[in-house]
Structure formats: C-alpha cells, structure tokens
From TrEMBL:
Gene3D superfamilies noted in UniProt: 1.10.10.2240, 3.40.50.12570, Glucose-6-phosphate isomerase like protein, domain 1 (3.40.50.10490)
Protein name: Fructoselysine-6-P-deglycase FrlB with duplicated sugar isomerase (SIS) domain
Segments forming domain SIS: 15-155
One term of GO molecular function: isomerase activity
PROSITE patterns per UniProt: SIS
Keyword line: Isomerase
C-alpha cells in the first residue's frame, strides 16, 4: 500500500480521472529514452489491443522533440518517464506541454521532468531487489493504460488485472528463486561470447529489447541484436548456425505461436547456445488467463535484469555499473 493506505492502482486511477476531468483524450503518447522507453511496451501493447477509441504510440524522447507528431494537442495524454530527469526526456515534456498535451511524469528522483508535467507518479527502480513489481515504471504505465481504457470505454477485465497487480510481486519472487541456477549455467556458457542475440515477440518484445540494449550492451558491453520472432524469418535467420548464442523469450498469449515457430527453427538449425526462457515457467500461468498476456513484460524484465544480467556480469567479471561513455563524455 502507498501513502495513507492507498494502493498504487488506486493512485493511478485517481490521477487518470483528474486528467479526464479537464481533457477529452483521443490520443496517448508514451515518451522516454533507453530502458524507460522500452518499459512503455506493455502499456502500448495493451492500448493497441484493447482500445477502439484512443490512438496509442511510443516515442523515444529526442525523436519526439525533433519531429513531434502532428496530432499531439489538447486531446493528447503524454506519459513521460525518466528515473532522474534525462535531459532530452525533460525537453520532450516541454514539447508536449507546448503542444497542449496533458502530461504525467513517471520518476524516481524529482527533476525538471516533475516540474514541467501536470501530474506525477513516483515509481520504484526495477534494479533494486526491495522494489515491488507493481510499483516499477512498466507496471505503473500499464496501470495508466488500463485505467484510461476502463474510464473512457470500459475494460471488462479491469478488476481482474488490478487484482493481478496485488499478487505479481510474489509471483516474481518465486520466479527469481527458480531462475537463479538456470541463469548461472547460461552465464557460464555465454562468458566468452562476443555477441548474444535476443528474440521475442508481441507482449514480450519490449523485454527482449531492454535485455539487449540496456542489460547486455550498456551494462556489459557485449553486442546484442534484438530480433522479433516474426521478423526472424524475413532476414535474420540467415545468420543462424550451430554456434550462435540466442536467448529466446517464450511469451504467454496470442503471439506465443510466433515464438513456437521460431523455437522449432532454432531447435532444428541452432545448437547448444540456444537458450529459452518460457513465460509459463516464470509464473505467468499463475495469473488469470484473461489478463496474463499483458503481464509478460512485467515479469520478464525484472528477471532478465536482476537474475540473468547479474549472472552474466559475474561470469564475465564485468561490473555492471561500469560504463565506457555514459555519464563520462559529452554526447
């Protein structure tokens, strides 16, 4: 529970309600950079599948500043996320405000972002073991999306989804214990590899993207292309051989068929460096079938960050807090 016994679900619902009191919302844009940008995937995926009245899209912060979409106006809700106030994300918030959009900041530390935005919601960092899963940025964004659709159009599974957020942290803790020995073995095998491909689709693609660009490339300085399981068969499968390291996320939901197709090919033409992390094994099946598809990112991402990335850091003797350029040079 949050301040004065208010749950994060209730806090989010109330803030969305305040936005809708003053704005007729027809569009929502999710704006951030890096892992925060990838963290919006679950919310945008939900909006695109469940909303018939609200257009939803994601933007990396600097693109939004340089080339904002023409539709952004007083009928737009801009949800903007930055842990500590990344410069270009703060500038994106200003751009959204100047165009007339209602703005909600998701943040860990107060910054120009929270000063600019109309509303603000504090979140807990996914990287901290004590953080609760329902209170990390991707979970709060998904709650915003669900509350928005529910309040404007009605979402039949809203209460089911909110109840799932009450138990998802416990599901995650159980998954961590399950995955640790598996991650250790995988990391030992990957320790000498120079490239690790990460694959996913649909509701898990955002987790695959973050695992590649943030966990493997940024934190460990190992090349890591992200491949959509559907797009795999339209080019990338040509690089597959028996030695290629591939990490496949098997989602729960309608897109699982795409992941299964990719897995069948990987099993036929790949080798011992193909690794599969199945959403069914990390607890997504413990959530109601009517909403579990939308929780793929919510469970995959903290497990990848806090279990698999840390295991690879240990196996490679690379401190995952070390950077080559970030925070050190002008960029």
């Amino acid at each position: 529970m949050g301040v004065m016994g208010v749950s994060i679900q209730q806090e989010v619902s109330a803030i969305v309600g305040r936005v809708l009191e003053s704005h007729d919302i027809t569009h929502v844009v999710w704006v951030a950079a890096g892992g925060s940008f990838g963290g919006f995937h679950a919310a945008n995926y939900f909006m695109e599948r469940e909303s018939k009245a609200i257009f939803s899209s994601t933007f990396t912060s600097n693109e939004f500043v340089l080339a904002p979409p023409a539709y952004v106006d007083e009928h737009t809700l801009a949800v903007i996320c930055s842990m500590r106030g990344t410069k270009e994300t703060c500038e994106a918030a200003r751009t959204a405000k100047e165009l007339g959009a209602a703005t909600i900041a998701l943040y860990v530390e107060q910054s120009d972002l929270t000063a600019v935005c109309d509303q603000k919601i504090a979140y807990e960092s996914i990287a901290l073991d004590e953080s609760r899963v329902e209170r990390v940025n991707s979970s709060i964004a998904l709650q915003i999306a669900m509350a928005l659709v529910n309040q404007l159009e009605g979402y039949a599974e809203y209460e089911t989804a909110m109840a799932a957020f009450d138990v998802v942290d416990a599901v995650y803790r159980k998954a961590v214990a399950y995955a640790r020995p598996l991650a250790h073995c995988w990391a030992e095998q990957m320790a000498g590899e120079k490239t690790i491909y990460v694959m996913g689709s649909g509701p898990a693609y955002g987790s695959a993207y973050i695992f590649s660009i943030c966990n493997i490339e940024e934190m460990l300085q190992i090349d890591s292309p992200t491949i959509n399981c559907c797009e795999f068969f339209h080019g990338p499968f040509e690089v597959l051989d028996k030695s290629k390291p591939v990490f496949l996320l098997m989602s729960v939901g309608r897109c699982r068929k795409a992941d299964e197709r990719a897995l069948a090919f990987l099993e036929r033409y790949g080798g011992c460096n193909v690794y599969v992390l199945d959403g069914k094994e990390i607890g997504l099946n413990d959530l109601p079938d009517s909403v579990s598809e939308y929780f793929n990112h919510i469970l995959f991402s903290p497990i990848l960050n806090n279990v698999y990335m840390r295991a690879l850091s240990k196996a490679t003797s690379k401190d995952y807090m070390t950077r080559r350029y970030m925070w050190k040079v002008e960029y």
